[in-house]
Amino acid sequence: MRQVKINSEVGDAVNRARTGSTGYCSNFFPSPQKLQSWITHGVLFCDQHDGMAFFFRKDRDFWHLYFCAANPTVLQQAVAAHTMLKNEPVVLDLIGKKPALAEMTAWFEPAGFRIYNHLFRMARTVVTETPLLKTDLDSRVVVASQADSHSILDLLLRSFDSRAEQIPTLYEIETAVAAGQIRVVHDAGMLAGLLYFETQGITSILRYWLIVPGFRAQGLGACLMHRYFAEHPAVRRFLLWVVAANTDAIRKYEHYSFVPEGLVDYVLANDKIRP
Amino acid sequence: MNVLVEILKSIRPEFDFTVSTDFLADGMLDSFDMITLVATLDKTYSISIEGVDITPEHFKNLATIARLLKKYGVEVT
Amino acid sequence: MNFTFQGKRISGILGILPVKEHSFLEDMRNFNFPESRSRKLMEVMGYDKHRLVEPGVCVSDLAVAGLQYLFDRGQLGRDDFDALILVTQSPDHFMPPTSNIIQGRLNLKHDLLCMDINQGCAGFVVGLIQAFLLLEQADVRKVVLINADVMSRKTSSKDRNSYPLIGDAAAITVIERDVVDTRIQANLKMDGTRNEALMIPAGGFRMPSTPATAVLEDAGDNNLRAKDHLRMDGSAVFNFVQVEVPPLIESLLAFSGVTMDSVDYFLCHQPNRFMLQKLADKLKVPYAKMPMNVVEHFGNSSGVTIPLVTAFNLGSRLTQERYRVCFAGFGVGLTWSSMLMPLGGLGFCEIIDYP
């Protein structure tokens, strides 16, 4: 296994797995920005042989696994043979519709992978533009500054499961802050809540929305959400991923007209990952 | 008609639209103004004037605009 | 006319945008245009910013930069493709074809069919049709389609009807055979009797460029334009789109046996937001399915706007997900064309800046 040092290594490995294949399968679709960030920070590794490329991304105390395989047979053989999948804590995400995912999950079971968690995607489609009503927005919601970055990271680590919910690193948070992608509310100088998003064209992905337990039931969550919608009048579709078992969150999202869209994320983990 | 005149004046405040029978020929509205006018009429009257109706002859003067609006169920007096 | 193709797919889209951004409001101030009127136009038409090349930058510069980016990242092998189609109306020279210039600058193989197509607003769909036709040949494994224009260099900076909305850009689309027997359907119409609606009168052989053709003339409404410059009959083009495009798309869907509701996205040429809203209203397509935000961010870059609207709005989602999309291009010629196809599982779908 070698550390990926330049982008072209990724492209070459993917192309080699893909060229001439009749059943290409992959879960590796990083945005160019994410890919570059992983390479720059030395967290991406590649293991490649005929018809097959594995990518491992180091995340805190475990690995994310990505694969690009010429066909499912090649993938299953490679999964069975790879020692890292037996010896290291590894998770992988399989995203798609449920019937297809059931088949893909079976490819990893012989290597000791099980469904660790699952999330589904919800969407809120906007039919007409909503004008930004500045007078209706709560002034306590502000754009996060770099001074908030560490608190944001602490809050995310305390509130979410890094294995299932892809918690960003500090440098990713700092990049998001610099890009104006995080809104926060403070109370007595402390971070009381946040909303973190990524917008591309007519689509915006709500990555995290939470209020610190001691500051709930004060309408701060609603303030953040209203600000988010009001600041994106041109967005036609808001998307988010939610853990399927988190019925409380799902109810809150439904209140804001989010509905499930049919796309599911199965997070598989090997037995080195403990709940 | 007063409402129409007000809308037109909001787009081109420097002109008196009650004295012209051909806004485009008289240089009071250009093609961009016509589109701004349509967008304003759509919003004011909650209608959606079809693209095929956005032609100079429908926006020649107050009477032609009123006739167009009538097609969309809007009576301007 | 109708086209049916099978077993072909788009495997990657890259947009290349000049990094320099100009503001619509600032441009309009240069025309002594009242700010209140500018702001109304901005709101209705969706004008805000546009990207323009620096003086001297040509289409081959944008194309070469984009291809090199893909080569450097291993996303396209320099010997992997067998045809290079360049759709442009602002070539580097009359002769040789700019596609050959790109081939030469990148030292690409000799067994490469290089072809320039003189098309504009409908140029992406026309280019795709040509690419699919070429892929019927066994020796053509992969086609690179480049749409590129630097039309700002042919637009009078004193023509407020055109200059503030023009954009320069390029897009590279990689097309290849699909192992799945996907069906792609398209239709196309052309009407040369209305060719003068979008025109650059001088510079070709009918009216060669001379000092006289470079003289700015009053085009009405305080606009100044030379015969060497782009001339657009806005009303005629608007009317043409509203009359011709809805039946074209409806006919495509009928011919394909597909309902309007089952199309996930309508990815149309981007002249301005108002025109697209009226088109969406006529087709009864929700605005969520017809993105119309390219002009406000980048300007109208002719044949590049369809790949740009695709990459800008769907971006990395297209690497993982699949959609049924309808492309529709309409404009210079006059030409109008639409295509229904599955789109997704792309190897790349992004936009980069030049330089």
Question: Which features would summarize this protein structure in a list?
Answer:
heterotrimer; A: 275 residues; alpha+beta; 13-stranded mixed β-sheet; 10 helices; 13 strands; globular; C: 355 residues; alpha/beta; Peroxisomal Thiolase, Chain A, domain 1; six-stranded mixed β-sheet; five-stranded mixed β-sheet; 29% helix
Structure description:
The complex is a heterotrimer of chains A (275), B (77) and C (355). Chain A is α+β, with helices and mostly antiparallel strands and 275 residues long. Chain A has helices at residues 7-18, 32-40, 72-81, 84-87, 98-108, 149-159, 162-165, 170-178, 220-230, 247-255, and strands at 2-3, 25-26, 44-49, 52-59, 62-69, 90-96, 114-125, 142-143, 182-187, 190-200, 203-211, 237-243, 259-269. Chain A contains ten helices and 13 strands. In chain A, helix 6 crosses helix 8 (170-178). The longest helix of chain A has 12 residues, at 7-18. With 77 residues, chain B is mainly alpha-helical. Chain B has one domain (2-13, 22-71). Chain C has a six-stranded mixed beta sheet with strand order 6-5-7-8-2-17, with helices on both faces. In chain C, strand 15 (322-331) and strand 16 (335-344) form a beta hairpin. The mean pLDDT of chain C is 94. The A-C interface holds A 7-15, 18, 21-23, 29-32, 95, 125-128, 200-203, 234, 236-237, 263 and C 72-75, 77, 179, 286-288, 291, 293, 309, 312-317, 319-321, 347-348, 350.
How are the strands of the biggest sheet of chain C laid out side by side? Answer: 6-5-7-8-2-17
Distance between the first and last residues' Cα of chain C: 40 Å
- CATH class annotation of chain C: Alpha Beta
* Shape field of chain A: globular
Q: Please state the overall shape of chain C, judged from the principal axes of the Cα atoms.
A: globular
